[in-house]
């Protein structure tokens, strides 16, 4: 509300408010601070329905970018970040530590709450980095990235809050509260400036990344830049050839901890390099004896031993304790043994539906795929891309498996298929053809065949998992291969020829008797020649039935053929035909 619209406001009241504001600004120590309307985001209540609706979709995990790229979606839109310094830990046992105070900062962003630990020297390094960025952004460098960044911050004032200038060693214990308040105000004001809030140094200081605030990935755990050692895989073929220190390679990675897994990303590209699942063998060990590394941290599970290197022993203890505490709080179900040796806990009151025949199963799979918005996972022993999931075919190729997958891939859905890689001399399921056919439909379709028999020396087992999982919310488990020969209904036909429908032979054909047949055969050759010029030629019962069965041309059946056995018992009318042949 402006003063121009309220000319009758009491002058003494305005003077009192101005005095209170000036005292507040002096207490905040904001000598270099200068706010304007374009620079500060408005504060929004967390209970605002717009905030509750604002979320980062799960599909963002496939669109990660390098950490230094501009215009990366990291924060929830329209949602502020609140910072609070909870406590100060003071080191008094040694004088070799330059920053003797360790601050625990609690940050809140929407529904996510996490803590970071920083020393005052970290605040100083962070502040110097922002000052460099402020000076760098003024230089008109003719690059695409720099030009884009300058355009985004062109109209924003570049003044920034200042840090306290007094040394940590000069602060007495009774002054801790004032120092905590100064650092808290520094972060609060800085996070209201889009120019500095979106800078990669700020996100690294706050331990956040592009995957931090995705709701479907679970609560936010500890994150940060760390050194990772190569190797440690328990799967043959993934380790280096040697075991000495010369064979290992250290790489800088961004580590993210979630409720059921850990992952690390490459900072340059933003690609997810590895995912470590939480399982019953998940353990954390700290120390040189356990890790063979100074300031090392060791994380074990059933598939790998991951070795990390921290900046100090205290830093390694902090990482290990934070990871263990977070997993014990949010992922304790994955650390226990469950019934039937399962990794997952028993879930009560789960909605379920069972299938007897593949007709209803295929139709529900097709409908679920059509409603997919983000992901489709398929595992099969055998997969036929050209199979129709809904029969009879009344909408062309709309419900053919490859057409469904291509249509959803074009809509942005990510599709992942895992097939059994057969021994070609023993099986003819031709998984290579299925992989090649699906992958050339769209780049969003990824197909993997497993196992590699030569390198893994695996020959005596096969993948028999039949799974279709939609958006990680609907799962068809223990199912049927999406392949030929699996479609069936209550009639239990003996063959599967693609698009199947039941055809009942009309009375004109079924009423043919032996006498009618004999009269047809007794026609003279002359009459046949005359009739062939004007009328269609009449064929025998066997020939006409063979046409109805979808056979391309007339053929003679052996005496003991299946067809004669069905004809003998008057069951030939219930057989199935191909819609392709019946339409021709």
Automatic annotation (TrEMBL):
User: What's a single GO BP term from this record?
Assistant: intracellular signal transduction
CC per GO annotation: endoplasmic reticulum membrane; Golgi membrane; late endosome membrane; perinuclear region of cytoplasm
Check the record and name the PROSITE patterns matching this protein.
PLD, PX
Region annotated Disordered, chain positions = 514-539
Q: Which GO terms describe its molecular function?
A: phosphatidylinositol binding; phospholipase D activity
Residue ranges annotated for the PLD phosphodiesterase domain, each copy included? 459-486
Record protein name field:
Phospholipase D1
Tell me which species this is from.
Neovison vison
């Amino acid at each position: 509300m402006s003063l121009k619209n309220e000319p009758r406001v009491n002058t003494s009241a305005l003077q009192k408010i101005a005095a209170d504001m000036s005292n507040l600004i002096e207490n905040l120590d904001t000598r270099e601070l200068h706010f304007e309307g374009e620079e500060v985001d408005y504060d929004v209540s967390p209970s605002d329905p717009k905030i509750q609706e604002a979320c980062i979709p799960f599909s963002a995990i496939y669109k990660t970018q390098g950490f230094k790229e501009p215009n990366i979606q990291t924060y929830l839109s329209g949602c502020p970040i609140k910072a609070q310094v909870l406590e100060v830990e003071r080191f008094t046992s040694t004088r070799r530590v330059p920053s003797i105070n360790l601050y625990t900062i609690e940050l809140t962003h929407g529904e996510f709450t996490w803590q970071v630990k920083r020393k005052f020297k970290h605040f100083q390094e962070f502040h110097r980095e922002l000052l460099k960025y402020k000076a760098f952004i003024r230089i008109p460098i003719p690059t695409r990235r720099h030009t884009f960044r300058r355009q985004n911050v062109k109209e924003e004032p570049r003044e920034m809050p200042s840090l306290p200038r007094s040394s940590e060693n000069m602060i007495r214990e009774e002054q801790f509260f004032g120092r905590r308040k100064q650092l808290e105000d520094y972060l609060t004001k800085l996070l209201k400036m889009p120019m500095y809030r979106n800078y990669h140094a700020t996100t690294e200081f706050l331990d956040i990344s592009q995957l931090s605030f995705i709701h479907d990935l679970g609560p936010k755990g500890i994150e940060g830049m760390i050194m990772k050692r190569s190797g440690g895989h328990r799967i043959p073929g993934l380790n280096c050839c040697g075991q000495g220190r010369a064979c290992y390679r250290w790489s800088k990675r961004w580590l993210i901890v979630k409720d059921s897994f850990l992952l690390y990303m490459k900072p340059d590209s933003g690609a997810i390099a590895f995912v470590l699942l939480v399982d019953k063998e998940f353990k954390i060990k700290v120390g040189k004896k356990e890790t063979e590394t100074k300031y090392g941290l060791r994380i074990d599970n059933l598939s790998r031993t991951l070795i990390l290197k921290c900046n100090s022993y205290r830093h390694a203890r902090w990482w290990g304790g934070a990871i263990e505490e977070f997993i014990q709080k949010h992922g304790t179900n994955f650390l226990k043994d469950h019934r039937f040796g399962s990794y997952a806990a028993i879930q009560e009151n789960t909605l379920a539906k069972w299938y007897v025949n593949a007709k209803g199963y295929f139709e529900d799979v097709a409908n679920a795929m059509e409603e997919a918005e983000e992901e489709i996972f398929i595992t099969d022993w055998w997969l036929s891309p050209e199979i129709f999931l809904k029969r009879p075919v009344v909408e062309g190729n709309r419900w053919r498996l490859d057409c469904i997958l291509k249509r959803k891939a074009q809509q942005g859905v990510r599709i992942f298929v895992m097939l059994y890689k057969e021994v070609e001399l023993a099986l003819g399921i031709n998984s290579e053809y299925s992989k090649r056919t699906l992958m050339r439909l769209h780049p969003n379709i990824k197909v993997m065949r497993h196992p590699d028999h030569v390198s893994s020396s695996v020959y005596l087992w096969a993948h028999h998992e039949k799974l279709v999982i939609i958006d990680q919310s609907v799962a068809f488990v223990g199912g049927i291969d999406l392949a030929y020969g699996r479609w069936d209904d209550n009639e239990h036909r003996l063959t599967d020829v693609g698009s199947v429908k039941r055809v009942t032979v009309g009375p004109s054909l079924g009423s043919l008797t032996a006498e009618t047949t004999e009269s047809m055969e007794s026609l003279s050759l002359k009459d046949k020649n005359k009739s062939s010029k004007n009328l269609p030629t009449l064929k025998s019962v066997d020939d006409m039935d063979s046409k109805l069965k979808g056979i391309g041309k007339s053929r003679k059946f052996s005496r003991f053929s299946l067809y004669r056995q069905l004809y003998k018992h008057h069951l030939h009318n219930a057989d199935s035909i191909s819609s392709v042949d019946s339409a021709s």
